[in-house]
Amino acid sequence: MFYHRKELFYPVNVGKPDAQFGQFLLEQFGGATGELTAALQYWVQSFHVENAAIRDMLQDIALEEFNHLEMVGKLIAQHTSKLDQTKVYEAPLFKMKGIGPHFVDSQGSAWTATYINEGGNVVRDLRANIAAEGGARQTYETLIKHTTDEGTVKALTHLLTREITHTNMFMKALDSMGKLDDPFFGTIQPDDTVDVVFNLSHGEDARGPWNEKPLKYIEDPQPKGKIPSAPINPDDEKTPTSAK
Ligand code: MN
Ligand code: MN
Question: CA 181 to CA 171: how far, in whole Å?
């Protein structure tokens, strides 16, 4: 069951409307790293997670992201609908689609479900969520650097902060399953190359914990396979060498 309360989750008070900044904000409304993507990603993941506590966490965070979507929508509405409308209509996107938020990103590309990363396994999903939160946090940082409006900065700083909190929750959930620092998950055992790392970019090589002991570093990797057989294509053009 869903119901909606008209009060905002956190205050949104734009002091000086800026239609151009409103267009930037669309990145977090209808963009890849935006709140619609996050809300729908965590919500749909909750349908296939067996663990009741993690399912509950995903539902709690999904609903918080819907609150964020509403806040970003209100920010866009306030940046494009107050006071002098001339500036609004100088921002090409709002000139065409009208004021307020739309499910497009800052460049006008339509939101797509391909932004959502989910499916099949809770460890896979939680790792995808850490990446999603990182993307959202980074977009908020960029947005904050492009506005001086105090009310906007305050709301965006809250939104950036919450993505850090969500990252922490997802990391703790993975840790509770012993999967925060264990790359293996799932039911199919890896082959004997799992601890082998290859030096495939030759030149000024640098080393780090990702390719040091106990991992086995192969300085000069050699192919383990043979040259594959040539393709057979009856429709391909025959040249003097290939058509005997
Ligand atoms: Mn959010
Ligand atoms: Mn989040």
Answer: 10
